[in-house]
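W.,

You were right to be curious about this one. When I first looked at the sequence I had no strong expectations either way, so I just let the prediction run and decided to look at it fresh. Below is the sequence, 164 residues in total, followed by the output.
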Amino acid sequence: MCDMHAQPEGTRSIVPEPLADALARVATAPMAVLGLGIPRCPATQMLPASLTVVANVRTDLPIALGILSGPEEWGARETELWPRRIHISRSVVPILVVLREGLAIATRRGGASAYVIDTWLADAAELPPTQLAEPWADDEHDELARLAARRAQHAAVTGRAAVD
């Protein structure tokens, strides 16, 4: 879904994966972040870049991005997400969830820059602040540029902006 730039050795790269794989990555951690989204959503497509920046300043925090791409993933909400106190529909994606021992303790709708996500995490999970700069990291700028046409199309279709 997202072409991530080569990462320097020792860094983590957050990539979209099926819901079951993302849950397996974070479900048993004392504290973790789970992003949930759908294919072709520009805000979801931005999350790998933003979550990668966060993952590389919060190296001890497991972070995963699950994609609900078909009926089987949406059907798994009842058995996999609802028991974790995660409620999601197509109208609220993407969504970020802070998990403590597999249960949601905080959620945030929509995508955002790494700085905004990290600031929310510090508050929601009571984590120490980091030194992320605002508003956008270089990799996020690159991803925004790559998605510009898709974001404009999405805005026009949803009635949020005019297309020239």
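Here's what jumped out at me. The radius of gyration is 15 Å. And, maybe more interesting for your project: The helical segments are 19-26, 42-57, 71-75, 77-81, 114-124, 138-146, 148-157.

Coffee later to discuss?

I.
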